[in-house]
Design goal:
The chain is α+β, with helices and mostly antiparallel strands. The chain has 7 helices and 13 strands. The chain has 2 domains: 92 residues, Leucine-rich Repeat Variant (Alpha Horseshoe), CATH 1.25.10; 172 residues. Helix 4 packs antiparallel against helix 5 and helix 6 packs antiparallel against helix 7.
C-alpha cells in the first residue's frame, strides 16, 4: 500500500541516502542519460515509497534534460502515480530554471504611486509582490516598475543579466495608448551579449500588450498573454506576458536596454529561463 503524501516529508528525513543508492547518480553522470531517465520515470510508479522518492529526487537533479520525457509521462502514462509525480517534477524543474533579473537599480515608478502623472489612485498597489507565478511563469515582483515616457526617461540602459538563457519572459504593459493602431511599435528590449553582438525584441501594441486600463472593445494581445488582472481606484488594469525565444542560447547575455518609440510602456519584471 502506498503512503499518504502527508508522510513524504517524514520519510525524506529517514532516508537521506536513498537518491544515490536507489537511483545510481554515478551512472547518470557517466552516460546513457536517456535510458536512465526512462528507468527513473518508470520508478516513479514503484510500489516502494523510498524508490519513488529517490526517482523524483534524481530526475529533479537531471533537470532540463528530463523535461520532454516527463511531459510525455505526465500526459500518457497509465500509472496515476507516475502522471502525478511527473507533473510535479515539471513544475519544480521549470522553477529551478527560472532566474529573476534584478530591476531594482532601474526602477523609477513605485507600485503605490500614481502612474503617468494622472489622478491619485491610478497605481499598481494591488499587484502582489515577491515570488509570484503569472501565466505559468515565475517572476519576482519588487516595489516598482521601469517606466518609459510620461515624464520618465525614454531609454534605460544596462539592466544586468550575466547568464545564458533559452528564453526571456517579460511582465509588462503600457499606458496612454488610446487610439494606437494595431502592431504599432511602442518600445523594444535590446539584448546585449557578452561578445558585443545584440538582438532586439520589439514590443508592439495589439500584439504584445494593449493599454493597461481595461477598456470596452479592446481585445487582448494576439501574441502576448494576459498575466495578471486587478483593480485600482480608477479602472480595471492588466499586465501582459511576452516570451522571447533566444536565437543564441549559448551566448551569455550581458545586459538589456529598454527603450520606447511611442506611448508609455513599462516593465514590471523579467525572468530568464535557462
Amino acid at each position: 500500500m502506498r503512503h499518504s503524501p502527508r508522510l513524504f516529508a517524514l520519510a525524506l528525513l529517514l532516508v537521506p541516502c536513498a537518491v544515490h543508492v536507489a537511483c545510481g547518480d554515478d551512472k547518470l553522470a557517466s552516460g546513457g542519460l536517456g535510458k536512465d531517465i526512462d528507468r527513473l520515470i518508470k520508478q516513479l510508479g514503484s510500489d516502494e515509497f523510498k524508490e519513488r522518492e529517490a526517482a523524483s529526487s534524481a530526475l529533479r537533479k537531471v533537470g532540463k534534460a528530463a523535461l520532454n520525457a516527463l511531459l510525455q509521462a505526465a500526459k500518457g502514462s497509465d500509472d496515476l502515480e507516475v502522471r502525478t509525480r511527473a507533473a510535479r517534477l515539471i513544475l519544480a524543474i521549470r522553477d529551478d530554471l527560472a532566474r529573476p533579473i534584478d530591476l531594482k537599480s532601474h526602477v523609477n515608478q513605485k507600485l503605490n504611486e500614481r502612474f503617468h502623472d494622472y489622478h491619485p489612485g491610478n497605481d499598481l498597489a494591488a499587484l502582489p509582490t515577491g515570488r509570484q507565478t503569472f501565466a505559468g511563469v515565475k517572476f519576482t515582483v519588487g516595489g516598482g516598475v521601469v517606466q518609459l515616457g510620461a515624464g520618465k526617461p525614454a531609454k534605460v540602459e544596462g539592466i544586468k543579466v550575466g547568464l545564458k538563457a533559452e528564453k526571456l519572459h517579460f511582465l509588462h504593459a503600457g499606458g496612454h495608448q488610446n487610439g494606437a493602431q494595431l502592431n504599432t511599435a511602442i518600445g523594444k528590449y535590446v539584448v546585449l551579449y557578452a561578445d558585443k553582438t545584440k538582438a532586439e525584441i520589439e514590443v508592439a501594441y495589439g500584439r504584445d500588450v494593449v493599454d493597461w486600463w481595461v477598456q470596452p472593445g479592446v481585445a487582448d494581445p494576439t501574441r502576448g498573454k494576459v498575466a495578471w488582472e486587478g483593480q485600482n481606484k480608477l479602472s480595471r488594469v492588466k499586465l501582459f506576458l511576452t516570451t522571447w525565444v533566444n536565437p543564441n542560447p549559448d551566448k551569455q547575455i550581458a545586459t538589456i536596454d529598454y527603450e520606447t518609440t511611442k506611448y508609455n510602456p513599462f516593465c514590471v519584471a523579467i525572468t530568464a529561463e535557462q
